[in-house]
Structure formats: structure tokens, C-alpha cells
Amino acid sequence: MHHSDITIIGGGLTGGLAALALASKGFSITVIEGQAPEKIMNDAYDGRTTAIAYASMRLFRKLGLWDAIAHVCEPIKDILVTDGKKKSRFSEGGISSFHMHFDSSSLNSTSTKSKEDENRPTPISTPLGWIVENATLRTVLFKAITAHENIHLHAPARRTHTNFSPANCVTRFTDKNGDEQSVTSALTLAADGKSSQLRAQAGIKVNHWKYAQTGFVATIAHQDPHEGFAQEYFLPGGPFAILPMTDKTMTDKILTGKMLADNLAMPPPQHRSSLVWTEKDKVAKNLASLNDDAFLEELKNRFGPYLGEISLAGPRFSYPLSFHLSHDYIAPRLALIGDAARAIHPIAGQGFNLGIKDIAAITDVLDKGRSVGLDIGNMNVLDEYQRWRRFDSVSLALGTDILNRFFSTDVTLIRKIRTIGLGLVNAAAPLRQFFMKQAGADVGTLPSLLRDDR
Q: Is the peptide bond before 267 cis (omega within 30 degrees of 0)?
């Protein structure tokens, strides 16, 4: 029987980051992860990218992780949101004349700052966010976890049961050698994803529905540089996002070394963007069955010509889209974080950033409770976490749901209304400022790990 202050079930992006945040406050942590680290750090396991909002970056910086990923993160300097059209024999496709433009340089305007924001400066150099490959994030997190003296990682390991009592919680699991082990702790964090078994065991109800949409993810190479622009088209099948990624040299290390040894010129870097393409299930089924050449042709019909010639620069991934929102985020000696608490439509790229806010909030709550001698698994302590995170989660989850439904239609009247609406918001600086701060996860009362203390 092992003992730790907190047991975290799930060692992915959210669970791993939570372990590091809590360990930084002196808590002893046990992480139980079902997959082997070498597997989930591989590009083939998760070829997606993640958007890190500028407020979320502060947590990485304060935990000493940012320097390890900053050089492979692509800053988002501008975001262009617009209605889009698929290329056809009647139209060239591409963006409409109505749009909403978020410019990172305008974040420094103080004209719309509330009293709560007055002491929250945003440096001129701060982008709206960064795009980073998930495999990179997982690698950095696992290296930091294995090096941290306050964290005990079991991976791969399979949780068999967790027993919650008034005094503690005991988790039984099978380790990588097949041996039965157990760990007792004051609190368990559920970071076990959308289909959380811990959430089900606690009897926490969930609002859930499927979107009848599929998300396609791929890395795209293109002829012209993206200049840090993120584009989001609203097409009838769903949002179509083109997110800037770092350039990549088109030669591997061996070839690079040979060329340098032979004093040959290096080829130009490969310009890349991450594609997040939402399509209705009926269309998506046909798209998924296409070979790469046919899939690329369909992609070109929607992508438009603004980045020149394009090609696939990696494997394609697809997954069904759904929504769920937990009625409660806590139960006796249990707290939900990340996708275990809620899963939203990727239309705004805020899923992981909501999880980061969960991590920062529960770190503050537990640290405060311990400092005054309270049991960190007590409901009086956990209630503060739930109050802090519920409104933000509900408002953003329902907001993304409404946006997706409103924009994923080709009804002429609705299309006219929304394109004019985009133009009106673009013309109103205070509204643009609000949406930029929302995209940057920089609204509301921020936990200490997300505040800009510089």
C-alpha cells in the first residue's frame, strides 16, 4: 500500500499537467496512466495539434515548462473568422467579404479594461496564442513528470477499483508487470476523459449529445508562408480551421549531415499548417474512404488559393464529435478535470484551455485549504473549485454549441444574418477586444498560475 496526497487517474495532457502543477505546491502525487509513455509520445498515436491561449501559457512558464516547447510553438498573430464557400463549377470558393479580424497588437488597448483587469497587463509581444503538436507536449510533460521527486508515475497501469470513504480514497491497480498494487490518498482527480469511469462510479449525471459531425485533422504543407495567420471558415458542413504551425526542414538528420559535409545548399523549409475540418457524418464517411490524392482534391476545393499549392504532410486522423457537460464537478474525495468534466465542440479551440483553467483553479483551492489545516478531500474545500469553474465551463460549452449550430447551415437568410453580424463585430473595437480576451482565456477571476505577474 502506497500513500500520496492526491491520486490522478489519467496521465494525458490534462492529467500530466495537473500532476506537475500540484507537485509544484509540494503535494505528493500518484499518476495512473493506461498507456505506455513511449506509445503516447509517438506522432502516430496523436497527430493533432493544440492551441495554447496566451493566459494558459503563463501556467507553462510558471512551472518551468515553456522554454522546452517555445521553440516548437508557432505564435498566432492574427485570427480571421469568416463565412467560407466550397469551390464548385459556379464559384471559386474561399472567404466571403464579411469577416472578423483579431489582431494581437490591439490586445494592449486599455479602453475596455474593467477594474478587475486593470492590474493584468498584456505585453505588446504577446500573441493571441500558440499552436503546438500534441506529441511534443506529451514528450515534455512525461520528461518533467519522471524527473519530479513529488510524482510517482505508473504507466502502463490499469485501474481496477477506487473505494471512497469518509477518511480517504483507495485505488487498486495493476502495474506494468501485472502486479496488483494500491494507493491511498486524500483526494482523487478524474482526468480519464470523456467516458470517465470515475464520474460514472460517483453517479454524476451528464448532459450528452452527438453532433452528427466528424472532425478531420491533418498537417498540410503549403507553398507560401502563413505569417502567423489562423483562418476559420464557416462552411455548411461545419467550421474549417487552418492553424499556423512551425516550418519544418524537408530533409532528415542524416541527409542534412551529408549535405553539410558535401557543402551543398540546404533546401527551403517546408511551410506547414494544421487542418481541423468539421464535416457532416454522411459526407465525412465518403471523405474518409478517399485515397490521399482524392482527399487532397476535396481539401483544395475548401482551402482556397491563399497559401498557394498545398499537399498532405502527414497522416490523416478523424474522430466523431460530441458534447457532454457534467452536472457536478465534485463528489466526496473526487474532482473532475478536463474532458471528464466537459467536452465541447472544437469550433473555438478552447477544450484544452478549459482543462488548464481547471488545473490552475484546483491547485489554488487545494493549496489554500491545506494552508489553513483543512482536509483537501473535504467537500467544503472542493465546493470552492466547483463554484469557480462551473459558470465559465457552462457558458463556453453552450456558446460553442450555439455557434456550431448557427454557422453549420447554408440557409440563405441565416448566412446573410451571420455574415453581416461578423462585419458589425469587426467594426466594434470593444466587442473584438472581449472576444480576443475570451480566446486568450484571460477573462474572469484568474487563478494564480494564470495571472500575468510580470
A: no
| Mean pLDDT calculated for residue range 160-182 | 96
Cell of 209: 449529445
Say if residues 112 and 434 touch (Cβ distance below 8 Å): yes
DSSP structure string for 145-206:
HHH-TTEEEE-S-EEEEEEE-SS-EEEEEE-TTS-EEEEEESEEEE---TT-HHHHHTT--E
Looking at the predicted structure, is the pLDDT value of residue 114 above 60?
Answer: no
Query: In angstroms, what is the C-alpha Rg of the chain?
Result: 23
Closest CA to 333 of 198, 151, 223, 159: 198
- What is the C-alpha to C-alpha distance for residues 26 and 337, in angstroms, rounded to an integer? 20
Cα angle at 11 between 350 and 67, to 5 degrees?
Answer: 65
- Three-state secondary-structure class, residue 253: helix
Give residue for cell 444574418: 417
Nearest residue to 322 (alpha-carbon basis) of 237, 212, 400, 236? 212
Return d(Cα 219, Cα 118) in angstroms, integer: 39
pLDDT digits (tens, 9 = 90+) for 436-448: 887 788 888 899 9
The whole-number pLDDT of residue 90 equals: 42
Q: Which residue has the higher pLDDT, 237 or 420?
A: 237
Please state which architecture CATH assigns to domain 2-450: 3-Layer(bba) Sandwich (3.50)
Do the bridges between strand 269-280 and strand 248-249 make them parallel or antiparallel, or are there none, so unpaired? antiparallel
DSSP letter at 95? E
Torsion sign (Cα): 363, 368, 371, 376: negative
Given a contact cutoff of 8 angstroms between Cβ atoms, the answer to whether 27 and 150 are in contact is yes
Q: Domain ranges in the chain?
A: 2-450
Asked if pLDDT for residue 123 goes beyond 60, the answer is no
- From 193, 235, 231, select the one nearest 213 (Cα to Cα): 235
Q: Is the C-alpha dihedral spanning 128, 75, 25, 379 positive or negative?
A: positive
Instruction: Kindly write down the DSSP assignment for every residue of 391-444, as one continuous string.
Output: HHHHHHHHHHHHHHHHHS---HHHHHHHHHHHHHHHH-HHHHHHHHHHHTT--S
Exposed e or buried b per residue across 279-310, where buried means at least 16 C-beta atoms within 10 angstroms of its C-beta: beeeebeebeeeeeeebbebbeebbbeebeeb
User: Quick check: 453 pLDDT over 90?
Assistant: no
For the ranges 69-78, 204-213, 295-304, the lowest mean pLDDT is seen at 295-304
